[in-house]
Amino acid sequence: MTAPLVHVRGLTKSFGAHRVLDGVDLDVGKGEVVVLLGPSGSGKSTLLRCINHLERPDGGFVQVGGELIGYRYAGGRLHELRHAAVTRQRSRIGMVFQQFNLFPHRTVLENIVEAPIAVRRLGRDAAAAEARGLLERVGLGGREGAYPRQLSGGQQQRVAIARALAMRPQLMLFDEPTSALDPELVGEVLAVIRDLAGSGMTMVVVTHEIGFAREVADTVVFLDQGRIVESGVPAEVLANPRHDRARAFLAAVL
């Protein structure tokens, strides 16, 4: 049996006295799309941030592509990696946030090429050519000279997706990528994510867009109070949830 691309075991994380993740186990196969659902505060975003070590777990571990993220194992113990090593690992894990986090004083093209030049050591011309191709892919061909302020929220988020893809990640994480958008702009961003799913990109997506989850997810995972309480194919979890908390949540949002 093929090993999962993402392997999470026993993940715990607390902020002060509040335990946000309480022993999470999660596997994501290569090419699989996993959608995380659950009420606010259930641990969805923290789980994503632990996967790429933006948050340091209190316990448990994360492996991506068979490699421990944020740590090395030696002498029977986990030892945290240096910042440069963690940065190298993160370069293979793309992440798109609620906010677009584009540099406002740089053009669309400049926003996209910076990391490939600095981290992948691409020449500027090669990085620019790749960036233009990615802009075509997300429906923004010809906008490379625009500044973020000249773009709609949906367009800025699509630039953020292109920027993440420019690092050629093996895994993409999306943390409520449409929550900061006006309703009429949500569809254009979801269309890009849908296209990525069709291309075989491995993705973990936090979203409240239930219709999108039903259409695109291979697996829907429901979290409550830092624990996975239900997991399965969308037709089962969304249409016939077994857990009381999942039923109550879906009844409120559907």
What features would you describe in this structure?
By secondary structure, this protein is α/β, with parallel strands linked by helices. It is 37% helix and 26% strand. The chain contains nine helices and twelve strands. The chain has helices at residues 44-51, 83-90, 108-118, 124-137, 153-165, 183-198, 210-216, 234-239, 244-253; strands at residues 6-15, 18-28, 33-37, 59-64, 67-68, 71-74, 77-80, 93-96, 171-175, 203-206, 219-224, 227-232. The strands form three sheets. The protein has a six-stranded mixed beta sheet, sandwiched between helices. Strands 2-1-4-5 form a four-stranded antiparallel beta sheet, covered by helices on one side. A two-stranded antiparallel sheet has the order 6-7. Strand 1 (6-15) and strand 2 form a beta hairpin.
Provide a quick synopsis of the model.
With 254 residues, this protein is an alpha/beta fold.
Tell me the helix content.
25-40%
Distance between the termini: 36 Å
Low-confidence stretches: none
- Numbering strands along the chain, what is their spatial order in the largest sheet? 8-9-10-3-11-12
Number of helices: 9
Q: Please state roughly what percent of the residues sit in beta strands, choosing from under 5%, 5-15%, 15-25%, 25-35%, 35-45% or over 45%.
A: 25-35%
